Amino acid sequence: MYNERREQIRSLLQTKAFVSLKELADMFPDVSEMTLRRDIEYLEGEREAIKVRGGARSMKFITNQTDGSITYRLQRNVQSKEAIAEKAAKFLEPGRSIFIDSGSTTQKLPKYVPNERFSFTTTDPAIALELCKIGLPIVNMVGGRLDGDNQTITGLHATRFLAEINIDIAFLSPSGLSLRSGFTVGNYAECELKRIVVEKARMVVILMDGSKMDKSLPYTFSTFANCDVLVTDGKLPEDMEKEAKDRGIEIIYCGSEL
After folding, report:
1. Which terminus of the chain, N or C, has fewer Cβ atoms within 10 Å?
2. Architecture per CATH, 4-61
3. What is the phi/psi pair of residue 29, to 5°?
4. Predicted confidence (pLDDT) per residue in 135-160, tens digit
5. How far apart are CA 67 and CA 51, in angstroms?
6. What angle do CA 44, 45, 48 make, to 5 degrees?
7. Across residues 118-124, what is the average pLDDT?
């Protein structure tokens, strides 16, 4: 059914990257804030916006720059990603609430999960299916919008779900790492999810192959200050390695050349 107010908000989101609730309240003084929030949620469902604190971000202005589709990434650096996942798996602890991020490297993790009483949560459908095949682990799938290119769940329902659960150990995969920007991704919605996980987790384990090194994408989800372990097959630049070690990060290098 046509809704003139929502059409006006949609038109505004075509011209601005961010629209605040205050701005909408000024535009529609006779409309309650709760109704305006529902309007934003509706437009998020229509993939016109992403609901954020204090308003909405326009999908038109959100960069979707990534390092390629999941199909493409799964074919790159396969041996390195296997080695990284195997090393990272030593931080798995039965009886803990464990989050596994979506990604071509984290998809290698289930191979190294023993058949024990783990409790997993993931945004990656492929990872969820592989974990279910193991037997004893409990697997929770985050609900929301499926991004087919990156094979990950995003959106309002996903952020709400993650905000309400406890996370003890998180395995995350960035699209880039630089000394200035920290751990970055090219998709805003994905970044919001990772930020929530980083804030909630007791231990953050980063899995990253060398192709992500010294690379900066638009959205930062974590810095060295919020990371506990970095597993990589690429040698960190000297200044970056010093910063990581000064922050107390355990760096695990994979590969005999390192």
Report:
1. N
2. Orthogonal Bundle (1.10)
3. -65, -20
4. 999 999 998 878 777 788 887 788 88
5. 25
6. 45
7. 96
